[in-house]
Specification:
single chain, alpha/beta, TIM Barrel, 5-stranded parallel beta sheet, 16 strands
């Protein structure tokens, strides 16, 4: 049986929320049901991927708002929201509103950079300013300041008989700033996140850079350690939480057909994990499949996992609702306990 001196403290899951374009409502309802199941199983958090012009969740804020009214305890996050698609001021208003509706359970995960396939959508996204938009860290820094309650303008006060104006984003949700996460794939981004008061989302993708013998787990470990060092060096360090997100597929209660389906999925994706991709040396983590005890043993041997006490295991992209029910149930009842995790108590 696997063993560790430090039990897993928080267990979450991540879903892309796929839907059939011919019946998108059913897919969104499935996602909400999966989040509800996660709460009943004792998961600490549920995270939503953010997909634009695809058949996945394009508005995780709306999904979180809906989920907040169906749940009472489980934390709700995004992993991640690409800030290149967002207006920081408007996003700050939406996030604060949903956080208040959820009772302070929102964990926004963010990333920066030019939107994917930007040349194909810039005319629609930024028709008058496509060449002027700043997709650097400055964009997420603006969001963080607005959420923290820093002034947006000098003007405030009453105008006329009933109109009253604020100089900051309203509503203000106290504590939301400390629950902002940054999705980093490089050591530079991890250091930036730590130095600027963000929690760290480390997923199944890292950038190896010029490393001649890249190993995913060691690179991830190095990034997490660099993040913690940077976070500890700031004058007023924040929570500095780190969450790891790998794809795990426990098969304990899976049917024979499900096991075959899962194994085909893993076999198709495994070749991409063997070599770095592109100029940044993008590395994908292998998917972990097997019994919960087998997966636990692999995780305890994983250098990245050894650095964390929180995880948000990613659900495979293209499975069916009943597959997710089986996988989540096995994670909560078998894999989690094998990692020392205790389910959250029902409220």
């Amino acid at each position: 049986m696997p063993d560790s001196s430090r039990p897993l403290r928080k267990l979450g899951f991540l879903t892309i929320g796929l839907f059939d374009p011919a019946d998108p409502a059913a897919g969104h309802e499935s996602t909400l049901q999966i989040i509800g199941l996660g709460e009943r199983l004792g998961f600490d958090s549920a995270w939503l991927r953010h997909r634009h012009l695809q058949f996945g969740i394009s508005s995780p804020i709306a999904i979180m708002a809906a989920a907040s009214q169906r749940t009472s305890r489980i934390e709700l996050g995004t992993a991640v929201t690409p800030m290149g698609w967002e207006n920081p001021l408007r996003l700050a208003e939406d996030l604060a509103t949903v956080d208040l509706l959820a009772g302070g359970r929102i964990n926004p995960g963010l990333s920066v950079g030019e939107p994917m396939h930007y040349d194909t959508i810039k005319h629609a996204l930024y028709p008058d300013s496509a060449g002027l938009e700043d997709f650097s860290y400055a964009r997420v820094e603006r969001l963080a300041r607005f959420i923290a309650g820093e002034p947006v303008r000098e003007f405030s006060g009453k105008q006329g008989v009933v109109e009253e104006f604020s100089n900051r984003v309203e509503p203000h949700s106290s504590g939301l700033r400390e629950r902002l996460w940054y999705g980093a794939a490089s050591k530079e981004s991890a250091i930036w996140a730590g130095a600027n008061g963000f929690n760290l989302l480390s997923s199944s993708v890292v950038f190896a850079g010029a490393d001649q013998e890249p190993e995913f787990a060691r690179i991830q470990q190095s990034q997490i350690r660099a993040y913690r060092e940077a976070a500890a060096s700031v004058t007023a360090p924040g929570p500095a939480r780190v969450s790891q997100g790998l794809v795990v597929i426990p098969t304990d209660s899976a049917s024979g057909k499900q096991r075959e389906k899962y194994q085909r999925y893993v076999d198709e994706r495994t070749p991409r994990t063997r070599v770095p991709h592109g100029p940044k040396g993008m590395l994908f983590a292998p998917d972990l499949i097997g019994t919960s005890d087998q997966i636990a043993e692999q995780l305890y041997a994983h250098a990245g996992f050894q650095e964390v006490d929180e995880v948000a295991f990613a659900l495979p992209f293209s499975f069916d609702h009943e597959d997710y029910v089986q996988i989540l149930t096995d994670i909560a009842t078998k894999l989690g306990p094998a990692l020392g995790w205790t389910p959250a108590a029902a409220v």
